[in-house]
Amino acid sequence: MSQPIVTHFFDEPTNTFSYVVRDPDSRACAILDSVLDFDYAAGRTDTRSAEAIVAFIQREGLKVEWILETHVHADHLSAAPYLHGKLGGKTGIGARITVVQEVFGKAFNAGTEFARDGSQFDRLFEEGDTFAIGNLEGRVLHTPGHTPACLTYVIGDAAFVGDTLFMPDYGTARCDFPGGDARTLYQSIQKVLALPGETRLFLCHDYRAPEREAYQHETTVAEQRAHNVHVHEGISEEEFVRMRTERDATLDMPRLILPSVQVNMRAGHMPPPEDNGQVYLKVPINKF
């Protein structure tokens, strides 16, 4: 099985890992789950995290073929448009983005100018779809539960699982966002855990379990099967659903969920300027 070269980038303010995935036999690469820095209090964006990726790709002489999202993130803004402008590449996300766009298009009263057909992206992936990064073949698993549009990208011996799984000592993703479902997440995780045990799993986030000092971004299917505190082998679907539902009821909403979703449902683009030329992000009051 081919082994892509994976380089990670960590944004500690949002606990997010972004990745550059390279074909070892060519200069082709893909970028996954990029971050646009955002100071919510000041309403200002910054591209320092994206620039670190740009600098790496230019230094290595790589060619970007894809800029991929595992899902519509609720904890950080995507830098996909900025990276596309600098490096090219096609954007991709799960085809169920249309469900997310419909729900949040209404929630933010986005209006008829906001297309709810996923057309902001170059490619909408379905279960079983394949794509190429140079000589590497990637394939797509639809792994909803955290959100309806969540995907896992399996590229050679590596799988990029988004928010579906965390490190074994931290567990699994929450399921209380609109369209989320704990039972669906359990079933999606089983698809990931059915991959070969040596498959490398690359995570979108790490929140560092209390007994662990360092942030970590990589584990394996075998480690998750044996040790994941929420969903290791022997945990039934009913046990997982009960645990996940009770746990989610205690969690606060992510700090950047309102700006993130408005931007990420547009493939990382800001809402259109209003009649004074200024771009605004909305805060619906008592909506969620």
TrEMBL record:
Domain of life: Bacteria
InterPro entries with a match to the protein in the record: Metallo-B-lactamas, Mito_Persulfide_Diox, POD-like_MBL-fold, RibonucZ/Hydroxyglut_hydro
Keyword Zinc on entry: no
Keywords per UniProt: Metal-binding
SUPFAM superfamilies membership: Metallo-hydrolase/oxidoreductase (SSF56281)
Gene3D superfamilies associated with the record: Ribonuclease Z/Hydroxyacylglutathione hydrolase-like
Residue stretches spanning the membrane: none
Metallo-beta-lactamase domain residues: 15-205
PANTHER family tied to this protein: PERSULFIDE DIOXYGENASE ETHE1, PERSULFIDE DIOXYGENASE ETHE1, MITOCHONDRIAL
Entry protein name: MBL fold metallo-hydrolase
